[in-house]
């Protein structure tokens, strides 16, 4: 599969002057400089699924509102995004939305069923189904841009991370019609009808790339692509049938740059290779950092970096020092506390966190996170204590 014929040149754009990176509000923050490969005094920390059901204030706000309606209500989505930042003092907000939101905005019949996840009205199983998928008019992304703008106005110097689902993970829901353990139908389609598969991947890359780009343009300071289910794939299938689509989606944000000025010029220069000048002069023109995360993707880490990510998110199955080795020792990592240990006695969790921080020193820089999302039954006080504990530990190697 190849999308070589697609011209992404028109996506090169300097971020607006009011953007938090361009204004300098977030460009020297611990999260952004660490994503750019600079190890600071403390390890920044945030949690996947930090917004959501572990917080009583979230459960209260959501009463009577369906998940996707909450995502498309700009004020509600913004408030839910801010809740974990206020409560835990994490180093980043992650935009409250869902990976299926761009499908919904394109007109696909999808809903999020409580306790289950995304469910499609009509699974996409044939070439005809793929051809019938609707085109996304980017104007429909307005509620997303509005929610992001409201959020960054309230966040001050805390960066907002924008996110999107990777084309394969979206395609897995479309083909299966809902959550699945092994994504068998999607893996069958990729081999039984390669042309329909390529077209499907191009469609998912287009809508999800537009969703991510809209969040960055509206004020998000970093991007995370979730290929949660890529771990179901062999390296050969990932490389030939999936990676080009992920690269295409990320190409929509690669061209978005900002100019580091004043105090920001001297930070964040180590590994932001796409923006770094070849002659080793400190680059003042920087790219928006991109994180790529998947579950059970220990065999795919290098391929996932190669699609155009700056940082690789590591799940809890593989220690960070081993992940760093597989990535050649030169890639900033994010991860990888086992979410199961959030429910363990504090001394057990503390020992695990110290081990994660220690192994993270094998990488040039490290942002602490979980190896997957916060379980809904997590005691939020444990997360707050964890943030304070991580901030009390020296980050130097
Ligand atoms: O009623 C509820 O509270 C619904 C639960 C919920 C929430 C809070 C869903 C349904 N999505 C979300 C928000 C969400 N989804 C965020 C918010 C920001 C944050 O992290 O705080 C993000 C980043 C996502 C991304 C997402 N949605 C992913 C990728 C991350 C991951 O968990 O691997 C995936 C796979 C989805 C699909 C999805 N949406 C919801 C569920 C329960 C699922 C997973 C279903 C499955 O197991 O297949």
> How would you state the average pLDDT, rounded?
93
Ligand inventory reads: coproporphyrinogen I
How much of the polypeptide forms β-strand, as a percent range?
Answer: 5-15%
> What's the helical proportion of residues?
40-55%
Number of domains: 1
Structural class: alpha/beta
**Major sheet details:** 7 strands, parallel
Q: List how many beta strands DSSP finds.
A: 12
Here the CATH topology equals: TIM Barrel
Shape estimate: globular
Main β-sheet, spatial strand arrangement = 2-5-6-9-10-11-12
State the CATH class: Alpha Beta
**Cα-atom Rg, whole angstroms?**
20 Å
Total count of helical runs of at least 4 residues: 16
What is the string of SSEs from the N terminus onward? EHHHHHEHEEHHEHHHEHEEEHEHEHEH
Named at the architecture level, the CATH assignment is Alpha-Beta Barrel
Distance between the termini: 42 Å
- Which residues sit in consecutive blocks of at least 5 with pLDDT less than 50? 268-282
Give an overview in words.
By secondary structure, this protein is an alpha/beta fold. It has one domain: Alpha-Beta Barrel (TIM Barrel), CATH 3.20.20.210. The protein has helices at residues 20-23, 30-35, 56-62, 67-72, 74-88, 101-106, 127-131, 142-155, 167-176, 184-192, 194-218, 235-254, 301-306, 320-326, 346-360, 380-392; strands at residues 13-14, 93-94, 110-113, 117-120, 160-165, 222-227, 256-259, 285-287, 290-294, 311-313, 332-337, 366-370. Strand 3 and strand 4 form a beta hairpin. Residues 268-282 have low confidence and may be disordered. The chain binds coproporphyrinogen I. Residues 48-53, 67, 94, 96, 98-99, 112, 114, 117-118, 163, 169, 179, 226, 228, 373 line the site of coproporphyrinogen I. Coproporphyrinogen I binds at residues 48-53, 67, 94, 96, 98-99, 112, 114, 117-118, 163, 169, 179, 226, 228, 373.
């Amino acid at each position: 599969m190849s999308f070589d014929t697609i011209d992404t040149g028109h996506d090169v754009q300097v971020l607006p002057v009011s953007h938090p990176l361009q204004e300098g509000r977030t460009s020297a923050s611990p999260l952004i400089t660490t994503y750019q490969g600079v190890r600071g005094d403390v390890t920044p920390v945030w949690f996947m699924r930090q917004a959501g059901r572990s917080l009583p204030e979230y459960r209260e706000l959501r009463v009577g509102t369906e998940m996707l309606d909450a995502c498309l209500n700009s004020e509600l989505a913004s408030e839910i995004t801010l809740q974990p930042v206020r409560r835990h003092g994490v180093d980043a907000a992650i935009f409250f939305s869902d990976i299926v939101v761009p499908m919904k905005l394109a007109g696909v019949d999808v809903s999020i069923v409580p306790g289950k996840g995304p469910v499609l009205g009509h699974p996409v199983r044939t070439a005809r189904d793929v051809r019938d998928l609707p085109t996304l008019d980017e104007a429909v992304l307005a509620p997303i841009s509005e929610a992001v703008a409201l959020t960054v106005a309230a966040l001050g110097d805390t960066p907002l991370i924008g996110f999107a689902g990777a084309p394969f993970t979206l395609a897995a829901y479309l083909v299966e019609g809902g959550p699945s353990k092994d994504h068998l139908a999607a893996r069958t389609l990729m081999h039984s009808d390669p042309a329909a598969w390529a077209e499907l991947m191009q469609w998912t890359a287009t809508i999800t790339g537009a969703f991510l780009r809209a969040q960055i343009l509206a004020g998000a300071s970093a991007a995370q692509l979730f290929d949660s289910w890529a771990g179901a794939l062999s390296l050969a299938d990932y490389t030939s049938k999936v990676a080009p689509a992920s690269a295409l989606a990320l190409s929509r944000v690669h061209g978005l740059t900002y100019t580091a000025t004043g105090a920001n010029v001297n930070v964040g220069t180590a590994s932001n290779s796409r923006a770094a000048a070849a002659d080793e002069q400190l680059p003042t023109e920087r790219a928006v950092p991109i994180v790529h995360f998947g579950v059970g993707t220990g065999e795919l880490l290098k391929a996932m970096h190669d699609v155009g990510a700056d940082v690789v998110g590591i799940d809890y199955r593989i220690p960070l020092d081993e992940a760093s080795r597989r990535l050649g020792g030169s890639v900033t990592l994010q991860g990888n506390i086992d979410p199961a240990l959030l429910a363990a006695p504090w001394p057990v969790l503390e020992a695990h966190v110290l081990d994660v921080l220690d192994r993270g020193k094998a990488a040039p820089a490290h942002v602490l996170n979980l190896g997957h999302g916060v379980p809904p039954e997590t005691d939020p006080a444990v997360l707050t204590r964890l943030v304070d504990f991580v901030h009390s530990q020296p980050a130097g190697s």
